[in-house]
């Protein structure tokens, strides 16, 4: 297992920084075999939450929104960046309320994941919010023009298997919940 | 649907560039509502392939490897960056051979996804390679110390549902294949 030991960070130099959005750094690393890598990038972006929100009648809340990184309108789940000092669960509860006006009495953590295992790029925290109930009007931020749609789990499964979802974290959480329930 | 129209790019300025690894740019955008956003980042990293490689006896090839972006040893699938001008399928076939020494006669595209819908960060192309057969020794690049392990699909499902996988794209492709087969 020695060869799988962590790489040693010899130095870190920030090459681009625009807080709180992104910081790019360049690291000098020593690998377990002794090899020196002089220019390995790390990209830090804010952590975020992604929420599989299910209503009392077992429908799943989807958001349809233009996503500029994809240059297209895409399906996603309620999601948002964590604020400094915020815990994942509190952040997910705030985002669900802001984006959909919903409250959930039952939150299940589905773990967390990184979008890019080499660079980092902002950890995602996955939650399944059950028995969601509308308690307010949606009140998202300025950039977030969106449509909220609810679908049955059968329809969600069809959309997923037909390739209609094109964001890695979203595919991950949707497939994970559906798989978990099919295994139960 | 008007409010879901694409954002107009008024200008793009590269703020950090280290080809072929990463380019960060800052865009001035006009939203459908007329609002101007002066400093929206885009992060371009190479596209890559991720392969669900299944042997003739239905075992799935996993790779255990230190991933520096996570600072830990993680499970992943055979994967790798696409070379300039390379097609996704050809890239996936090359990576599978390099990393595992395996050849597959049967490749199924499972679509593609982006790790970060706002910034971009390198599209992933997912493939299911069936009936993989060992035809050579693994011959990965210098940085890639790894162990190759094969597991049954039941074991893969257990690992997935127990949260042992921590890379978004990897969770996505694994859950997608298992869900597809449970739906078949």
Q: Strand fraction band of chain A? A: 35-45%
The radius of gyration over CA of chain A amounts to 19 Å
Oligomer description: homodimer
Shape of chain A, please? elongated
Span between termini of chain A: 35 Å
How many beta-strand segments of chain A? 11
Number of helices of chain A: 3
The poorly predicted ranges of chain A are none
CATH class of the largest domain in chain A: Alpha Beta
User: Topology as H/E string of chain A?
Assistant: EEEEEEEHEEEEHH
Helix-strand category of chain A: alpha+beta
- The CATH superfamily of the largest domain in chain A bears the name Nucleoside Triphosphate Pyrophosphohydrolase
Estimate the helix proportion of chain A, in percent: 10-25%
- Average pLDDT value of chain A? 93
CATH topological fold name of the largest domain in chain A: Nucleoside Triphosphate Pyrophosphohydrolase
Give an overview in words.
The structure is a homodimer of 184-residue chains. Chain A has helices spanning 88-100, 153-161, 168-183, and strands at 8-18, 22-30, 36-44, 48-55, 60-67, 72-76, 79-81, 102-103, 106-113, 124-134, 146-151. The first copy, chain A, folds into 2 domains: 2-44, no CATH class; 48-183, Nucleoside Triphosphate Pyrophosphohydrolase, CATH 3.90.79. The radius of gyration of chain A is 19 Å and the shape is elongated. The mean pLDDT of chain A is 93. In chain A, the strands form 3 sheets. In chain A, strands 4, 7, 8, 9 and 10 form a 5-stranded mixed beta sheet that branches. Chain A has a 3-stranded antiparallel beta sheet with strand order 1-2-3, with no helix packed on it. The longest helix of chain A is centred in the C-terminal third of the chain and has 16 residues, at 168-183. The first copy, chain A, has 3 helices and 11 strands. With 184 residues, the first copy, chain A, is of the alpha+beta class. Chains A and B meet through strand 1, strand 2, strand 3, strand 5 and strand 6 of A and strand 1, strand 2, strand 3, strand 5 and strand 6 of B.
């Amino acid at each position: 297992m020695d060869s799988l030991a962590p790489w040693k960070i010899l130095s870190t130099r920030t090459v681009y920084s625009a807080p709180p959005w992104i910081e790019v750094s360049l690291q000098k690393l020593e690998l377990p075999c002794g090899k020196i890598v002089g220019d390995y990038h790390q990209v830090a972006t804010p952590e975020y939450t992604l929420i599989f929100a299910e209503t009392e009648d077992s429908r799943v809340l989807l958001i349809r929104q233009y996503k500029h990184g994809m240059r297209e309108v895409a399906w996603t789940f309620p999601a948002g960046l964590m604020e400094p000092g915020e815990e994942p669960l509190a952040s997910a509860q705030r985002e669900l309320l802001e984006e959909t006006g919903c409250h959930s009495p039952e939150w299940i953590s589905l773990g967390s994941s990184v979008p890019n295992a080499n660079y980092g790029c902002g950890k995602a925290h996955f939650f399944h919010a059950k028995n969601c109930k509308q308690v307010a009007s949606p009140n998202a931020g300025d950039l977030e023009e969106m449509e909220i749609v609810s679908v049955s789990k059968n329809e969600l499964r069809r959309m997923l298997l037909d390739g209609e979802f094109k964001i890695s974290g979203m595919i991950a959480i949707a497939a994970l919940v559906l798989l978990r329930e099919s295994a139960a």
